[in-house]
UniProtKB/TrEMBL annotation:
Cellular localization per UniProt: Cytoplasm
Cross-referenced PANTHER family: COPPER-SENSING TRANSCRIPTIONAL REPRESSOR CSOR (PTHR33677:SF4), TRANSCRIPTIONAL REPRESSOR FRMR-RELATED (PTHR33677)
Descriptive protein name: Copper-sensing transcriptional repressor CsoR
Source species taxonomy: Bacteria, Thermotogati, Deinococcota, Deinococci, Deinococcales
Keywords assigned by UniProt, alphabetized: Cytoplasm, Metal-binding
One of the GO BP terms on file: negative regulation of DNA-templated transcription
Subunit comment: Homodimer.
A GO MF term: metal ion binding
Pfam family, one: Trns_repr_metal
Domain of life: Bacteria
């Protein structure tokens, strides 16, 4: 994966980690409003989805686009289908 995508995914995962830690702290407080927890959960999901898109793009650019040259197209397709749970 290109370094720029690796760093972008890492940044997004750091954001998700921060939101997740916030959720855990919120749940320690019995006065916390449930909708606030749900908003933070959505923020984590969004950050994870964003990281996934960045990693997928890097994989497509680095591996899928060159699979035919290497002769492993079918293996790359199956691997990606399995990773995305489309198998």
């Amino acid at each position: 994966m290109p370094e720029s995508e690796r760093l972008a995914a890492r940044r997004r995962l750091s954001v998700a980690q921060g939101h997740l830690q916030s959720i855990v702290k919120m749940l320690d407080n019995p006065e916390v409003y449930c909708v606030d927890v749900l908003r933070q959960i959505k923020a984590v999901q969004g950050a994870l989805d964003g990281a996934g898109r960045v990693v997928l793009r890097g994989h497509l650019q680095s591996h899928v686009a060159t699979a035919a040259e290497r002769g492993d197209t079918e293996q790359i397709v199956e691997e990606l289908m399995h990773a995305l749970k489309y198998r």
